[in-house]
Amino acid sequence: MIQAYAAHEPQGELKPFEYDPGSLLPNGVEINVEYCGICHSDLSMLDNEWGMTQYPFVPGHEVVGTISTIGEQVTNLQVGQRVGLGWFSHSCLVCEWCVAGDRNLCPTAEATIIGRHGGFADKVRAHEDWVLPLPAELDATTAGPLFCGGITVFNPIVQMGIQPTDRVGVIGIGGLGHMALGFLNAWGCDVTAFSTSPDKEAEAREMGAHHFVNSRDPKALEAVQSSFDFILSTVNADLDWDAYIAALRPRGRLHLVGVTPSPISSQIFPMILGQKSISASPLGSPTTINNMLSFAARHEIAPITETYGFNQINEAVDKLRNGKPRYRLVLKH
């Protein structure tokens, strides 16, 4: 039996919950959960914002732990190995996207907390391909958010071909944005942080930003017109997208990884004249996640976290819902 914390209704309190996971599949891996980050997607699923939550619902998809059991066909992982697990827990392996290595784009990919129970528990299961060894150089206590928030901002760096000579902006210095600053700085880019909180400037610079723009100030946005090759938006908010399109250089790209409440709207003529584009991306493939982990280890990049015990789980969720974590929350057994 697996001991977990589950909600039984939208916005419900997480309460102790026990379930029988059944027999481990031949390609399955069972992980002893040591740490699990709390992501805003957990909150969205908890509240059934996306209309796909099944109750009782066990959140948790930023898992770090050690392998307790492996299926009979698993050959690339070992019992006792420290690993991580993120948003995805399985993909079909046979569609054109999986065969090409883009398993994160698999039309039938399974998520760790959709239709199955996640990592707010003592154990969690997944297919071997999405269970990834954690480099020894990374601190297990803070590494969990890399498996969702980290790969969400690292994946577009790879997929969009960001160059070390590029001038890049990051909108939103929160749970995603603070990791983006570190990655892009280490990548070699000239990095600008856009934030509505001027008091974050010093911290943003410490995290990797070379420049800071108060995005509440229209004059500050006007001053950076035609400045960026790439702007990464990490916020779940509706913004003046035309202002950011104007901030792009010719062939520049506005790329979104935050889920905006409303459809994106922008004037098309400036995009045509500058051959500019708007795009978006999900989390990365297992290969890209492995590369991110190696890159983070090499450059000593880690999320900034606050740690709570699993017995404080509702207090931690409430802080994410109503407070301002700086910058990711992690549960610890």
Give the helix/strand layout:
Layout: E1 2-6, E2 15-19, E3 28-38, H1 40-46, E4 63-70, E5 82-85, E6 88-90, H2 96-99, E7 110-111, E8 123-127, E9 132-133, H3 140-143, H4 149-159, E10 167-171, H5 177-187, E11 190-195, H6 201-206, E12 211-214, H7 218-223, E13 228-233, H8 241-246, E14 248-256, H9 268-274, E15 277-280, H10 286-299, E16 305-309, H11 313-322, E17 328-332
Helix pairs in contact: 4-5
- As a percent range, the share of helical residues equals 25-40%
SS summary, helix count: 11
Radius of gyration, taken over Cα atoms and rounded to an integer in Å: 20 Å
* Tertiary shape: globular
Determine and state the CATH class of the largest domain.
Alpha Beta
Task: Summarize this structure as a short list of keywords or feature phrases.
alpha/beta, 7-stranded mixed beta sheet, globular, 2 domains, 6-stranded parallel beta sheet, 17 strands, 26% helix, 333 residues, Quinone Oxidoreductase, Chain A, domain 1, Rossmann fold
